[in-house]
Amino acid sequence: MTLKVYNTKSRMVEEFSPSHGNRVYMFVCGPTVYDHSHIGHARTYLAYDIIARYLRAKRYSVFYLMNITDIDDKIIKKANELGQDPLALADDFRRDFLQDMLSLGIDRVNLYAKASDHIPEIIAQILTLVQKQFAYQVDGDIFFDVSKFPNYGRLSGQDINQLIKHRIDLDPSKKNVVDFALWKSQKPGEPAWDSPWGKGRPGWHIEDTAITTTYFGPSYDLHGGGLDLIFPHHEAEIAQAEAATGKEPLVKYWIHSGLLTISGARMGKSMGNFITIKDVLLRHDAEALRLYYAASHYRSQLEFDEKHIAQAEQVLERIRTVYNEFRSLSATAKPESSLQTDATRRIICEAKIEFDEAMDDDFNTPRALAAMIGFAKSIEPYANSALSKEAIIDVLGQFSYFGNVFGILQSKETTTERAFEKLLSMILSIRDEARKKGDWLTSDNIRDTLRDLGVVIEDSAKGVRWHLKPVVEDSA
């Protein structure tokens, strides 16, 4: 099966073919760290986490890079309001962001690159643009001259002449209203670095291209971000990088995720209508939030509704229940073949084909989610059958495949918990041997001792199962 993705640049669904064979260079615009991350960020970064997971499931070697904007007007403004150092404030929120990502199970990013760690690369790229006459200096500021780059506007489908004609800009020093800052001269109270143009700091757009060309070179495979970044941010990235390197395209596939709205308005820090990731995770399971977002296509706009997260929790619990039923069976299953093995293999094969076809269709997670739910429903009756060890392992392997792509059913077991399961499996094997020998006294003693310890053993014609007794707290 061939993966196809919707390319914003061509406005077409295209076959995915990385430039370097099996290797995929993937960049996603990261946050500007001046406040706590909100669930709009969660929607974006969970979408690209699933994309990275699926690419790796297809055996691509993915280098996933994300920048952290820790130098920006918004950060400086917030720091001044709080009387803090801007870089220290940004670093606090950077750590906060990374913790939120871990809480959401987003762990497929290979490198989070801070803008402040790449000042030499940023200055070098600006110097190149000045030398090639794509940029000009006004006092201590450097601007990119959009009129020198004919392809500006191609990604967003905008006419540069119309932009120049209709846009209003308060900065009279620029040649054109759409020209954008590459370097900003230092103002009182702002962080600054030495440069050929005096002390100052980088503009927003140049940070990303300096970072990507450092790690990926002049061209790479996949660039992701929210729809709101297409113009002017991504247009500026293309102009800067292609003008500086002389190579095109900067990006082979531009992928953009839809926005999250709340009460019909886009959620954002600047809008003041955001809900933090931390607040939502106090009320809901992180894996349920992942399923909630996966139930909508990554390119669609989504209206946030907490009731739907609760529904996703019910779906997640149902899948977990079936998965755990087969996990408990695996401890006591016999290796002999079973008449049910062919049936379970057919269910596994059909579900995987359906799942992969959905994901290969521009990462269609709603259809893939339906395939996973259908698999859990179809396979559940076989948890009550005398399945072979091989069949159970196959079923668990398919759950694991789905779970790894969606980032659910991820093991949160501690070393102690894993040791407990291994020890229990050994004890149940000893009990099984005693039963075969007719040593009912030993068998019953093991069962009763385990029950006293909170482990309930159930014997049936179809094998042995166990579960932990629920803990009832003393209300006194």
Structural overview:
With 476 residues, the protein is α/β, with parallel strands linked by helices. α14 (415-436) runs antiparallel to α15 (440-452). Helix content is 47%, strand content 16%. The radius of gyration is 28 Å and the shape is elongated. Mean pLDDT is 90; it is low at 471-476. It has 15 helices and 16 strands. It has 3 domains: 4-283, HUPs (Rossmann fold); 307-406, Anticodon-binding domain of a subclass of class I aminoacyl-tRNA synthetases (Four Helix Bundle (Hemerythrin (Met), subunit A)); 415-468, no CATH class. α1 (39-57) links the parallel β3 (23-28) and β4 (61-68). It has a 5-stranded parallel sheet with strand order 5-4-3-10-11, with helices on both faces.
Give a brief description:
This protein has helices spanning 39-57, 73-82, 86-103, 119-131, 160-166, 204-216, 230-245, 277-283, 286-294, 306-330, 341-360, 365-379, 389-406, 415-436, 440-452, and strands spanning 4-7, 12-15, 23-28, 61-68, 111-114, 135-138, 141-144, 180-185, 200-202, 220-226, 251-257, 260-262, 265-266, 302-303, 455-460, 463-468.
